[in-house]
Amino acid sequence: MLRLAMTTDAETFERVRGPLADRGIDVGHVRAKERALRVSGGAAARDGAGDPDEFADFDVGLVYPTRLMEGAVVDERLGVPWVNGRDAVVTSRNKAGVLAALSAAGLPTPKTTLVSNPVDESVVVDAASEFSYPVVVKPNSATRGVGVATATDLDSLLGVVDYLNLIHDYRATGDKSFLLQEYLPDARDYRAMVVDGAYAGAVERELDADALAAGRWKHNVHRGATARGVDLDPRARDLAERAAAALGIDYLGVDLLATDDRLVVNETNARPTVDAATKYEDGFYDRFAALVRRTAEEE
């Protein structure tokens, strides 16, 4: 049986274990963070006191660890090809880079400007002058909606930027950039899954009526939204596939925003959460398993 290493033990791990086992793929967890990892100087077959080598006997990995420093060590210890390796994770994490690549490929995206700190306040003022309020402000490489805000006027925008500047003043902060992005009111929020180049299903992320009445607008599931399986129309399916092709990423979550007259790619995720199988197309796990097997054979 093929052995697949996963560096997460959250929802996706639990959901994929059974369906992949039914298709001849044994899924195991390799802990990549918040631990000690042997790098050199002794028998690399063990970590800790007498523990067996947890990195042995894997054939393929899914997905490269989110912490790149630890990931380099885990990558060497495993010695396997990845469904979405380091390059895919780094590419998708850079929101501005993704939008620039997709825009260059002719795909629709929200109007967006990258601000690279430190800059004078005048630079932010000039950049904001190209937008209508409210405007979205988001860290360039955060996930799960962390740090994303809307500013309703210039004063509130500069206040948000003041807080970002406090974080970016810390010398160890790696990414000192943020995005200004147009706000699309009442946009429907979809996460489309693309597996090995083909659309494999989608969910619509929705806030309940109480959250909307309270002024909530971020549709991240980790912020309380509900993911409901939907059947996307051919135009949205095609856009998701074209986004994955433009980025060259085999296994990708593509976030789409849809209004009455626009459909845009907002973000992508090369470490997408797998939802319940009922929310995806028939054959989702067959295609997923085939991608895992093909990746293992590319070693």
TrEMBL record:
GO terms for cellular component: cytoplasm. GO terms for molecular function: ATP binding; ligase activity, forming carbon-nitrogen bonds; metal ion binding. Gene3D superfamilies: ATP-grasp fold, A domain, ATP-grasp fold, B domain. Coiled coil: none annotated. It comes from the Archaea. InterPro entries: ATP-grasp, ATP-grasp_RimK-type, ATP_grasp_subdomain_1. Keywords: ATP-binding, Ligase, Nucleotide-binding. Residues 99-297 form the ATP-grasp domain. PANTHER family: BETA-CITRYLGLUTAMATE SYNTHASE B-RELATED, RIBOSOMAL PROTEIN S6 MODIFICATION PROTEIN. This is Alpha-L-glutamate ligase. It comes from Halorubrum ezzemoulense. The lineage of its organism: Archaea, Methanobacteriati, Methanobacteriota, Stenosarchaea group, Halobacteria.
